[in-house]
Amino acid sequence: MSDSLRDEVHQAARRAKVAATALATENRQRKDAVLRAMADALLDRAPEVLAANERDLAAGRAAGLTDALLDRLALTGSRLDGIAEGLRTVAGLPDPVGEVQRGSVLPNGLELRQVRVPMGVVGIVYEARPNVTVDAAGLTLKAGNAVLLRGSSSAEQSNSALVTVLRDALVANDFPADAVQLLPCADRASVQHLITARGLVDLVIPRGGAGLIDAVVRNATVPTIETGVGNCHVYVDRAAEFDVAREIVLNSKTRRPSVCNAAETLLVHAEVADKFVPEVVAALRERGVTVHGDERAVRLAEGVVPAVAEDWDTEYLSLDIALRVVDSLDEAVAHIAEHGSGHTEAVVSTDVRATRQFVARVDAAVVAVNASTAFTDGAEFGMGAEIGISTQKLHARGPMGLPELTSSKWVVWGEGHIRPAS
Amino acid sequence: MSDSLRDEVHQAARRAKVAATALATENRQRKDAVLRAMADALLDRAPEVLAANERDLAAGRAAGLTDALLDRLALTGSRLDGIAEGLRTVAGLPDPVGEVQRGSVLPNGLELRQVRVPMGVVGIVYEARPNVTVDAAGLTLKAGNAVLLRGSSSAEQSNSALVTVLRDALVANDFPADAVQLLPCADRASVQHLITARGLVDLVIPRGGAGLIDAVVRNATVPTIETGVGNCHVYVDRAAEFDVAREIVLNSKTRRPSVCNAAETLLVHAEVADKFVPEVVAALRERGVTVHGDERAVRLAEGVVPAVAEDWDTEYLSLDIALRVVDSLDEAVAHIAEHGSGHTEAVVSTDVRATRQFVARVDAAVVAVNASTAFTDGAEFGMGAEIGISTQKLHARGPMGLPELTSSKWVVWGEGHIRPAS
Questions:
Q1: pLDDT tens digits, residue range A89-107?
Q2: Residue A243 and residue A279: Cα distance in Å, rounded?
């Protein structure tokens, strides 16, 4: 890896740290004002952003990107409206900084308070979508952090234009421009330099496919939060109402098959499999879903493709679902423990004991009872916006909003207190 | 690294994961009962524990360990009493598991709750003190976790005897023995296998010197929490009362110089340096402290050793302190930002504005106003016990008690809710 690239990344991180120090003591009014100014500026300067995006799209077409990837990359006037509206939404959210999380007076009279403070310098490593550039900048800024954005090279022109607009708005509002910086993206090594900048970067969040996330988490020496891989299950208990179960399965699988909260495996209790499996398979096939079933499922319904071992561990992100018949709730819980990714797991049942057992024993960021897996989302959870969905257990688990972009500080107030020898 | 050692560590982690699944749904009554049974068993079986400790001490003496290290390694009847009492204290603490952290009913009627759940499998890597074996096992168990203990080879016999007693108590109380396991310690590679066991280990906490902590954090691919390095400062403002300032400096430096919350650098505002520096240097020297001062300090007081650049970054952990005269609060804040380790920073001042500025602008786990740095401690903060002091910003910052050994889970209750297309 080139030393000059490392220097470039580390110098950006040092500038971010200086900016973060200034941001840490900004009040909500000023932060909201700059977020709204950014929204205005994005609309005012839409032509230059869209022109930059057109250059990325042209390069993408020349490089043979798929239509799906080109669509992810594309900005339009209405998409820019949505991005600007996202900034206004963040401006309207409560400021997490300064919130007193715990507080007490100790027996010796010391006043103790734990308050939320910004995380400091946050790195975001992400793939094609240019909207992430603005969403991530808005959320990290509102939480008082400086952000280092490392987007994909296919969106370089778009990201650069967006960041220029954001930085100009920062400066115009008397904020440090280096609160938002775009890192070089031509060379993969810039990711490595970012995730090993110990002492300069407080947190890195990877957003993208499983390969990207795994590479970041494995190679980082700065703290990271693992996001997004969702091998989600729906378990239909013997006490499930079929109508409810069918609609939850269909919604969990087909609402948006490409997102991480989509269901990938259906588990059906053997006592109701004879009746429910043919019904749900027919409904899934009608929606264009390919069902990969175990032996019993293949026997019970027409058009089920025999599942292979990998199916249980596959996050299809497509109109495919694995289907297994289980003999008990225990077997369902064990299957999920072995194959789940700790994202979202749903149970459909009218039985109090079964639902309570499922909730208590399934280890995941979100456990849904008689509800679709599709509800795992920051906006649905009332967070206003999300920076990602954590599938790790440290710091944040599930959808991450503004509070998850903060740390805390203990403040101790005394009057000359000293600690006696013990 | 040998594959068989990796297999041994990973198999222990797999057994821990099975045990953790059972522990996750245990109630407080049963957890407290087994903690008390462990305390009783340690006292009942003191002779075999002390005999094992004697073997470690003999080996340590033969290997030429220093008296200080031998003292850290040594167990006595009264130390065992203290260790057992620690388990009873943990039994008396509230159970963090199941606590509802947030909860609401969403506009669509979904009931949403965020509840504390155990972290799962927690690894602890630590140095000589055998008491950590029991303290860490008690805290992790109370929070519903299985623990993998990786102690030092110099305490192998002691740790092994202690873990045998704890596991017997687990089994006698119908808990899985594998909730507490001691990993092989002869080969350093077992640490590496532990901290790279992704999917098997949820968290590793290193406890020990800076070298150990740095090695664990740098090489881990599982989440870690950085603990303990404390380059703590006391800043004496121009508005400080000298008596208060002197006592806080003396207590922060000399109460227990070898622990991480001890002060290592004193910063004095230039406006009061003429009077305060000679006074505080004399008081420090009287307590046997060597003062390493900048040019102005050397000029102002007798017996000040000229500081070199490294002094500002040194965690002495001894009767040494660095002393710098600063021209302003800004300069003090900047010095701390450059040299501090984010542990504990204290200000002594009667001025409201100065103290508020210091609190807002200094970025550390604990900021103390007119109080000794020595208060940074889980027991002092009312946590009952601590597993370490985090100096990172992710998940936990400052003293870590039982809640910091938990994660959370979102539970969503619906009645057949599906999410509309957007």
A1: 999 999 999 999 999 999 9
A2: 10
Whether B355 and B369 have beta carbons less than 8 Å apart is answered as yes
pLDDT of A1 > 60? The answer is no
Reported as type and span, the H/E element at residue B43 is helix B28-44
For the segment A351-400, what is each residue's pLDDT rounded down to a tens digit? 999 999 999 999 999 999 999 999 999 989 988 888 999 999 999 999 99
Least confident of A61-65, A271-275, A325-329, B207-211: B207-211
Closest CA to A267 of A341, A351, A319, A339: A339
Q: Indicate yes or no: CB of B407 within 8 angstroms of CB of A419.
A: no
Q: How many CA atoms lie within 13 A of B207 on its CB side?
A: 25
Angle between helices B156-172 and B28-44 in degrees, nearest 10:
130
Nearest CB neighbour to A106, from listed B225, B360, B382 = B382
- Listed by start position, the domains of chain A span 3-226+394-413, 232-375
Amino acid at B354: A
> Hey, of A17, A110, A404, A410, which one would you mutate to test binding to chain B, going by the most B CBs within 10 A of its CB?
A410
Fold entry, domain A232-375: Aldehyde Dehydrogenase; Chain A, domain 2 (3.40.309)
ipTM of the complex: 0.93
Would you place residue B246 in the very low, low, confident or very high pLDDT band (cuts 50, 70, 90)?
very high
Residue B386: partners with Cβ closer than 8 Å, 6 or more residues away: B377, B378, B379, B399, B400, B401
User: In chain B, what are the helix, strand and coil shares in percent, each to the nearest 5?
Assistant: 45, 20, 30
Helix (H) or strand (E) holding A420: none
DSSP letters along A342-360, please?
SSEEEEE-S-HHHHHHHHH
From the candidates B410, B411, B415, which should be mutated to test the interface with A, based on the most A CB atoms within 10 A? B410
Say what percent of chain B tops pLDDT 90. Answer: 91
Residue B217 CA to chain centroid, in angstroms? 15
Per-residue confidence at A78, pLDDT binned at 50, 70, 90? very high
Q: What is the CATH number of domain A3-226+394-413?
A: 3.40.605.10
Give the span between the Cα atoms of A227 and A391, in whole angstroms: 5
Say yes or no for a CB contact (<8 Å) between A374 and B419.
yes
Backbone angles phi, psi at B127, to 5 degrees: -100, -155
The per-residue pLDDT for range A141-179, each reduced to its tens digit, is 999 999 999 999 999 999 999 999 999 999 999 999 999
Structure confidence at residue B211 (pLDDT): 87
pLDDT of B304 over the 60 cut: yes
Out of B367, B393, B412, whose CB is closest to A369? Answer: B412
**What residues in B contact A418, CB-CB < 8 Å?**
247-248, 250-251, 255, 371-372, 374
Helices (H) and strands (E) in chain A, counts: 14, 16
Rounded Cα–Cα distance for residues B229 and B33 (Å): 35
Q: Is the dihedral of CA A236, A238, A240, A243 positive or negative?
A: positive
Residues ≥6 apart with Cβ < 8 Å to B29? none
Question: Which residues in chain A have Cβ-Cβ distances shorter than 8 Å to B399?
Answer: 410
pLDDT for the residue numbered B422: 76
The distance between the two most distant Cα atoms of chain B, rounded to a whole number of Å, is 79
The separation between the first and the last C-alpha atoms of chain B, rounded to the nearest angstrom, is 52
Chain A residues in contact with B112 (beta carbon < 8 A)? 381-382
Question: Which residues of chain B neighbour A251 with C-beta distances below 8 Å?
Answer: 418-419
Q: Do A217 and B218 touch (CB under 8 A)?
A: no
Range picked from A120-129, A320-329, B60-69 for highest mean pLDDT: A320-329
State the DSSP H helix or E strand holding residue A283, giving kind and residue range, or none if neither.
helix A270-286
Q: In this predicted structure, what is the pLDDT of residue B2?
A: 60
Residue B190 phi, psi dihedral angles, 5° rounding: -65, -30
Chain A residues close to B248, C-beta within 8 Å: 416, 418
Dist. CA A409–CA B312, nearest whole Å? 23
